[in-house]
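Hi there,

I know you've been waiting on this one. I reran it after we fixed the sequence typo, so this is the corrected version. Both the input and the resulting structure follow.
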Amino acid sequence: MDLLTSLFFEYGALALAGVAAGIIAGLLGVGGGIVMVPVMTTIFAASGMDEAVILHVAVATSLAVIVPTGTSSALAHHRKGAVSGELLKLWAPFMVVASFLAGISAGFYSSLVMRLIFGIMAILIAVNSVVPIQKKLMEHLSDSARTHRTSAAIIGYISSLMGIGGGSLSVPTMTALGRTVHQAVGTSSALGVFIAVPGALGFVLSGWGVAGVPDYALGYVYFPAFLALAVGAILFAPVGAAIAHRLSGIWLKRVLTIYLLIVGTRMILKAISG
């Protein structure tokens, strides 16, 4: 296979992943990172990228893509009055700091650790969507500023290391603390930007000058992949939202749960097998 053909397949696959991420983001109200990161790791491995940086590059690039897609989603929710200014003030500052620290500290984590974090959290998110473990654990906590700020910091850090917008973690947390689903989803979409911007910046700094990072990357953020993914995600997120109104929410939730279980298991097995 010549270089031109190889590049066509690689970036064509990334563009399709962006389309899938956009549709799923629109369908399920989550960031596309949970789709983009696994797809990128597969494509990067096939292209011969250094295994030691593959997941770091995938996570960082996913966060960069979430900046424009998340901003678009947040503005749409804001226009519908679904973004809570009160929750933003409570959550955003702590998410920003935690997400940036995660991006910086990622440079100290091996590929194995990054895979385990993504895999374990993906499975926990899937299980929590079926069995409301988080709600049971948090229902005794007060709806206090301290509880919200602590939750924001933890979610910001974990989400940044996974390359996701955090909706799959922040929405159930907010609802467990007594907020409505609509308010939680709308506010979470805005908070995804507060995770993605500092998180991507942290990955830029921690990946600066690291051996094995591909050409045309700024730190760990790989711009060719960013462009290929962002175009598809931005264009097709509205398509996913339109489809969502025609499908059963229960079935969509089941599909996401199965997908997360498969992805999480694969990440863990990959980490264990070395």
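Quick highlight: The chain has eleven helices and two strands.

Best,
R. S.
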